[in-house]
Every structure is written in C-alpha cells, then in structure tokens.
Amino acid sequence: MSMSGETRGPSRGLQFFILACTLLVIGFGSGAASISLSAIFQEFALSYALIGAVTSGVFLFLILFLALGGRLRALVGDKPLLLAATAVFVAGEALGGLAPDFSVWAIGRLLQGAASGSLLSVSLAFAADNARRQWRGDVISVLLALYFLGTALGPGVAGYVTAFYSWRDIAFASAAAGAIVLILQAAFVTAPRRPEIETIFD
Fold it and tell me: What's the predicted TM-score (pTM) here?
C-alpha cells in the first residue's frame, strides 16, 4: 500500500513497531548465539581457534554490510533490502539449527552476520528518512535500544533453553520470530514517495 491523496498507508505507528521488532529479533539472535557456542563446541568437537574465527567473521560481516547499507539501499530500494535481509537472517538461523556439521553451522552464522548488518543499516535509515525532523534522534535511539535489548535478553533465554532443551531450539525459535517479522514487513511496511517522507512516523 502506498500513501497518496486518496488513500492512507498502514498505521505509521505500526510500521515503526515492525522495524523495532525486526531489530529486537536480530539482536536476540546475536545474543543467543553467544551462549550456544559452548554446546556447539562440544557437539562438533571444535577448536577454540575455529570458534573464534567464525565469531570474528560474523562481526566482520555485520560491520561490512552495515557500512554497505547505503549503497545497497540505493541499488535495490528500502523495502526490498529489508525483506531480503530478513529472509537471509531466517535462512541463517534455520541453517544453524539444522546444521549436521561445523561448516553448515558456520555458513548459517555468517549469513546472520551479513543480514544483521544490512537490517541495522536499512531499519535505522528507513526510520530516520521517514520520521519528522524533530523526532529522528528519538526514533534512532529507540531502535538501537531495542536491538541491544534483544542482545541482552538473548543470553539469558538461550542459557535456560540450552540447559533444558537444545541449542538448536534457540536457532529455530529465532528463525520463527524472524519469519513472523518478515510477514509483517511484507504486509505493512511501505516506502513512501519522497514528498511524503516527512510525515510517515509522526
């Protein structure tokens, strides 16, 4: 749906809520993964060097795609990038949960890193572009706070789940949450025309 003179798009607050949920979910996935490492270390008989290399790779991918976010937005557009990055996050989490060996798990984690960087970039830029000028700082602060809230909640929830169930269940839960967010994004998030940008989140 697009916002025009005849029709209004989805609720402005709802769109902001969906972006906030997106960053909460990817933050949770990142935080939860840190607790799963010890169980993965034992199951796949890994070395600390391999675990460290993959973890560094995840953060490097996040940084790289965060830095490239502006270029990616220009190439494919805000909403397509939002949907694609969320789909990659879901695929990465699912791969991690299904992984029969270390290599598949590592690919899943690297996909999560790339998706997280892209989602941070496009969500923050999308919100900043679409908020009234006087609210931009508040919008960005809230979104970042929710990303780090997810990162903070992830280890606690993952620790409980790993103690009683499996680290794979954490990955599946993150993938399911990401899939729900993806559906909401597809249904309700819009990229308005530039003349309308100033009013979408007011």
Answer: 0.86
